[in-house]
Amino acid sequence: GDSVTQMEGPVTLSEEAFLTINCTYTATGYPSLFWYVQYPGEGLQLLLKATKADDKGSNKGFEATYRKETTSFHLEKGSVQVSDSAVYFCALSDLTGGFKTIFGAGTRLFVKA
Amino acid sequence: GAGVSQSPSNKVTEKGKDVELRCDPISGHTALYWYRQSLGQGLEFLIYFQGNSAPDKSGLPSDRFSAERTGGSVSTLTIQRTQQEDSAVYLCASSSAPGGVTGNIQYFGAGTRLSVL
Questions:
Q1: CA quadruple A83, B35, B76, B105: dihedral, nearest 10
Q2: Nearest residue on chain B to A5, judged by CA atoms?
Q3: B43 CA to chain A: closest CA distance, Å?
Q4: C-alpha A10, offset from chain centre
Q5: How far is B48 from chain A (nearest CA, A)?
Q6: How does pLDDT run across A35-83, given as a tens digit for each residue?
Q7: Taking the CB of the first residue and of the last residue of chain A, which one, N or C, has fewer CB atoms within 10 A?
Q8: Is the Cβ pair A106, B33 closer than 8 Å?
C-alpha cells in the first residue's frame, strides 16, 4: 500500500541555517503531496502542497518539489528562524488509495537563537 | 465556525471506562476525518465521513472504537472499555472536498489528549 517515509528527528539548527527534511513516498497511482506543520499546542496546518510531477509548492520561505523519478518531496528553507520550531509531516493523497491521506511519522525541528 | 474545534482538550480516565470525544468541523465542510497520534508516532487514520456516512472505517483499531456524525456536522468518537494503549492524542480534520480529490486540503483541530490510567 501507499506509504510515506521521512527523516527521523529531532533536527536541531541554529537560526539562519539551511534546512532540509527528506521525504520519500510509495504510491500505486499519481498522488498529491503535502507538507503539514504542527506548532506547539496547535493542530496540524497545511504548509504547502504539489499535485503533479515537477510542481514546486512554496509558503513562508519553505519549498518542496515533487520529484516523480526519485519519489521524493524534500522540504527546504534557506534560513530558518526560531519561530519555525515545530513538527513537520509529509503526506500523500492518492485516488487509488481511497479516501485517506497517508502521513509520515513527523520530524521535530528545534531552532536555536 | 472559524476552525475545527475539539473537546475536551484533555481527558483523563480510568481503564475500563468509556469516553466520548467531540469534533465540530468547519461550517460547510462535508468531509471529516479522525486520526490518532501516539507519542513519537505519525498520524494513524481511524475513520472518514462524507456527510453522515462513513465510507472508510478501515482504521478503527478494534470494535471498542466507534464514531458517528449527525446533521453532516458534529462527530463523536467513542471508545468503550478504554485500555492504556488507547492513550494518545486524537485529532479531527475536516475538508470542503471529498476524500481522495486531488489536492484535498484538510484542516485540523488542536486534538484531544486522552490519558488512560
A1: 70
A2: B42
A3: 6
A4: 14
A5: 7
A6: 999 998 888 999 999 988 999 999 999 999 999 999 999 999 999 999 9
A7: C
A8: no
